[in-house]
Each structure stands twice: as C-alpha cells, then as structure tokens.
Amino acid sequence: MSTPPPVVNANVPNHLVWAILSTLFCCLPAGIVSIVFAAQVNGKVAAGDIAGAQESSDKAKTWAWVSFGLGLAAVVIYLALMGLGMMSSGMNSY
C-alpha cells in the first residue's frame, strides 16, 4: 500500500501583490522578474520544497524592491531634469 504524500503546512509568503503593483507602477522589467519568482512559491510549497519556496519568495521580494527603487529613481531624475529645464528657461527670458 502506498502512503500519501505528507501534508505540508508552510506559511511562505509569495509577495505576488507587491510584484504586480511594482510592475504596474514602477519598473516593468524588474517587476516581471518579481512576478515570475512569486508565481513559483505556491507550486514549490505544494511539492514539499519549502527551502525552494522560501528562496523564490525572497527573490520575489527583492525584485519587487528593485523595481520600486528603479521607478523611484526614474521619478527623481525626471523631476530634477524638469526643474533644471524650468530654471534654464526662466534665465533665458531676461
């Protein structure tokens, strides 16, 4: 008689919501990487690979933060360039 696989009750967060939000609002390429890792978490938990699920969870979180950081950097650079442009156009009016 074969025994059923053990029931794994691991609480490994997949960070899928943060991955999707960082993809939509921050940086598309890094956000997609985050979504891919987030999508792997539940499958690995179901297969009993808790260490692999935790690793994918950590990578999903890291890439979501990378996406957020790149998006924030892009906004800061954009605002700085707009400010410099406004300053230079104000100086030319004299």
TrEMBL record:
<keyword id="KW-1133">Transmembrane helix</keyword>
<keyword id="KW-0472">Membrane</keyword>
<keyword id="KW-0812">Transmembrane</keyword>
<dbReference type="InterPro" id="IPR051423">
    <property type="entry name" value="CD225/Dispanin"/>
</dbReference>
<protein>
    <submittedName>
        <fullName>CD225/dispanin family protein</fullName>
    </submittedName>
</protein>
<dbReference type="Pfam" id="PF04505">
    <property type="entry name" value="CD225"/>
</dbReference>
<dbReference type="InterPro" id="IPR007593">
    <property type="entry name" value="CD225/Dispanin_fam"/>
</dbReference>
<dbReference type="GO" id="GO:0016020">
    <property type="term" value="C:membrane"/>
</dbReference>
